Model the fold of this input.
Amino acid sequence: MTQIDYPVCGSGLGLKRALMGPLAEHSPSQIDFLEVAPENWIGIGGKFGKRFRAFTERYPFVCHGLSLSLGSPARLDETFVVQVKQFLDEHDIRCYSEHLSYCSDDGHLYDLLPIPFTEEAVRYVAARIRRVQEILERRIAVENVSYYAAPAQEMAEIDFLNAVLAEADCDLLLDVNNIYVNSINHRYNAEDFLKALPAERIAYCHIAGHYREAEDLLVDTHGAPVISNVWELLDKAYAHFGAMPTLLERDFNIPPLAELLAEIDHIVALQQKWAGQTEIRVAHSG
Done:
C-alpha cells in the first residue's frame, strides 16, 4: 500500500457566497474541506468577513488563486504575494495553488493565457514559482490548465508541465476535467497523460463540468454538471494514484446545494471504491 501525505482529505467544494447560507444551515457530512480564491476575500471585513471566518474555523480550507500570473512577462507582484501570505496565515489555509498560465502584462487581461511550451519558459516560470514559495515560506501547487492554442510550442504539454514541477520543486493541483478537455481539443490520450504525472507531487484534485462547443472543441467553463467521461477519467486517476482528495468546482450556473451534493456523493463513492490502495495522511502543522 502506498502512503501519501496530503494537505486535506476526502471531498471538497468551492465556497461561493451564494452557498454560504445553505452550507451554514445544513453542514453536509460529505463536505470535508472548502476552497476559495484569496483575491475574493483578502481585506473583506464586516458581515461577510465574519461569516467567512466562521467557515474557516469550522472547515479545513485550501486556496486556488486567480491573479498571480505565473507566466506573465511583467514583474511578479510581490506586494500581492505578501498579502496572500498574510491571508493564508490568518485563516490557517492548508494549501495555496495557482494556474500554470498568465493573465496580466501591464494590466489584467481577464483570461487565462497559455505559457509557451518551451525550455526557456520552463526556466522563467519555475524561477517565479520558486520566488513565490520563498516569500510565502511554503510550497505551492500549480494546476494543469485548459488551453485552446499552443503558441511557439517546442515541447509536449506533459513534458512542459513535468519540467516546471521538477525545476520549481513545487506541487501539482491535478485538474481531471482539464486533462479531458485538452485531450479532445488537442487530440491526445487522456489516460496516458494522467499516468505520466508525478504522484508524489499531487496536492489534491479538481473535477468540474465544461461546455461542448463542437465534436472537437470543449470549453472549460465550470458551469455545468460533470459528464460521464470525466467521471470515468477520475476513476482511472484513483486507480493509478489512489483516492486523493478531490474538490468539485462550480463557478456559475450554480444549482441548489442538493444537486452539488449529489455530485460530491459521486466523488465519495469513487473514493470508497479505491480507498484500500493508498494510505492517506494529512500533513498539516496547524
